[in-house]
Design a protein that fits this description.
By secondary structure, this protein is α+β, with helices and mostly antiparallel strands. The protein contains 5 helices and 19 strands. The termini are far apart.
Amino acid sequence: MLPEALLCLLSAALAAAQSRKILSLNSNSAFSPSTTPTPAVFDLPTAANLTISVALCSATSSLPRFFVTNSSSSGVPGSGGGIDVFEIQLTNGLGSWTGIFDDGGVLAVEDLQQTSFELGVSDQANLSQPTLPKSSPNYTLLISPTNSSPSLTALPQTGCMLSSQKSTGAMTNEGLWLRDASGWRTQWLVEALSPATNYTAYVIQDSTQVGGPMYFATKSASFACPLVFGLAYCPSVAYTVPLPPPPASSNSRVYTAANIPEQITSPLLSYLTNFTVSLSSFACGRDMYSPIVTCADCQRAYRKWLCSVTFTRCGEASPANPNSFTSTAPDTAATGLSAVQPKDPKNPLAPQKVFSALLAQPTDISKARSPTLPAMGSAYNMLLPCIETCTAVDRACPALLGFTCPTSQFNAAASYGVGYTDSADGDQDQGATGGSQDRWGNIWCNGG
C-alpha cells in the first residue's frame, strides 16, 4: 500500500491535470483574470500542423510569457527550458507558433498578472490573416477586346459611361481572396474569351470609381496548360501549370484545392511545416534576430518561393515576337544576365531587347523542375521564377537556417529569371523591366 503522503501527492497531480483547460481545434478562446485557470496551463489538440495564436487584450506593466511544448515527456513548459520547449514571441501584443503535435501538447503562461488574452488554435493556413470583411465593395468587372470599336479607352473614362458598356466573356467565379500581406481583394474567374486576343479591362466601384485600364492577352488555342488557383496554402498561385487536364469527375476545366493532386500538396505542406518548425525552434524565441524583419516575414517569403518552384508556371512567347525567348535551356553552369540580350553590332544605337525568361521543356517528367508534378504528356514552355522570389527569403530569414540563392556571376540564369526586377548586381528595382510583369500584359518571369 502506498504511503498516505504519496497518495496525496498523486491525487494533487491528477487534479491539476484534470483541471487544465482543453483548447479546441480551429477555435478562438478569450480569457480574463476571472476566467483564466490556475495555474494557467492549457492542453493542446493533436494535429500534424498546428498553429497557436496569442493576442493580448489588455495592457500591463510587463508582458506575460507564453511557452509551448509538443513533447509528451516535457511536462508543463516554462522559462526553465527543457527539451522541445518553445516560447511564443509577442510583437505588438500578437504572437504565433506552428509545429507538429502528433501527440498533442501543452501551453503555459507565466507572469500573467491581470492580463486578458485570447488563444487561437488551428490546423488551417493563414491563421494570422486579416479579418474577412463582412461585405465587399460593389465592384463590376468590364472586359472588352482592345481592338473593339469603339475602344473602351476612347470613351469618356467615367463610371457612368463605362458601366453602360457590355462586358465580354462568362464570369464563372467571383469572391474575396487573401493573396498576400496587402489584404483581401476581389478575384474573378472569366471563361469564354477568344484565344490569342488582346483585352482591355476595368474595375468599376459603385458605378462611379474607375480602376484601369488594364491590359492582358489570352493564350493561343493550342496552349495546353490548365489554370491553377484558389489554394489557401499557396494564395499567390493563380496561373497556368503543366498538368494534365483536370479529371472529368471534378466537372471543371481548372484546378483548385478541391481537385489538385495530392502527390503535389502532400510534400509541399510537409516542406512548409518542417521549415516553420525549424524557424520557430531556433529563431523565434524571446530574442529577435532582426529589427527589420520578423519570423512572419520569413515564413511568408519562403512560402511564396516554395509555391513558385513547386507550381511551375507555363507560358508562351508573344505572337508579335515568337522568337523572344531562349529556345534551348542553358547549361547548369550558365552565367550572365538573362533579361537583356546583347546589342545588335549592326545597329549599336538600337535599344537592347528584353526577352521573357521562357525555357522550352521536354515531355520527360524526370527532367522537370518540379518532380511532384504529374506528366502533362506534351512539351511546354516554362516561365522561370524571378530570382527575387529566392533572394527575398535570403533577406527575410535568419542566417542560421542556411537558405542561399545562386548568384548572377555563376549559374543563377540557368534556373531563375535574372535582371528583370533588380539588376544583375542586386540593385533594387534597377532591372531591365523593374518588375515581374507590366500593365500591358507582359510577364517577364514568375514573381509568385
